[in-house]
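Supplementary Note 3. Input sequence used for the single-chain structure prediction.
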Amino acid sequence: MTKSLKHIVIFVLLGHVAFAQQAVVEEATENRNVSAARKPASFSHVPFLVLKITPTAVFGQDNVLQYGAEIAPPFGKLSFAFDYGKGKGSWNLNKYIRQNQAENTTTIYRGEIRGYFSDWYPFYSMDKKPFGRYYALEFVHKDMNRTRNVATASGGTSLPDYAQFDKVETKEKEQALHIKFGKVIIINRFLFVDVYAGVGAGMYKSTSLNPDPSEEKKVILHSGFMSNRKTREPDSKGFFFSPTAGIKLALPI
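The predicted structure, written as discrete structure tokens, is reproduced below.
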């Protein structure tokens, strides 16, 4: 082997060694970064009370400011959550509702039973609540006061003298039952994010109100199949399909 060929072989071997060392260093650095990113939040105790607020409810049609709490007792496998919400038309994000239905009010009560089945380290050997994935059965009760422009009749219901659009106050009640699936994401020791979605069924009842007893009650002309199904007619009742989804910000205690 000539001297120049020896130099080439030595140069190639040194190159391979340097490349291998660099790969080992990069792999170790990557493993350290992944380990640091996956480092779980540390807790001195398993939280038994979680305070929550639901920002997504503010952007809904009812623009409800909703807050509540979850109780995770140290016994059993279930936890219990309760929420209360209040909304007003005067602060609705919809400009039309703010200007024309500022008197609208909405009150919501929610209660649910949760069962967690988390496999999130290091809580796999614990009760697993209130961490990780869960399923829930939720009951929702909603009271609403609405002011709407509807067609009303004067002089009889069969052949009225004339019809006009008037503002009619209605009181609506909703009750729904949901089956939900969600996940509690741990951001850090003081912040959880609760993401959920579900489906269910509910029933409603809408009743027209007569604010002035001396005034003759207005006869509402029902538009039947031509009505907007998203806006329930006064003095009607029925069932509805009820989807639900949202995000809650939670403070564990």
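The chain is about 15% helix and 50% strand. Confidence is low (pLDDT under 50) at residues 16-20, 224-229.
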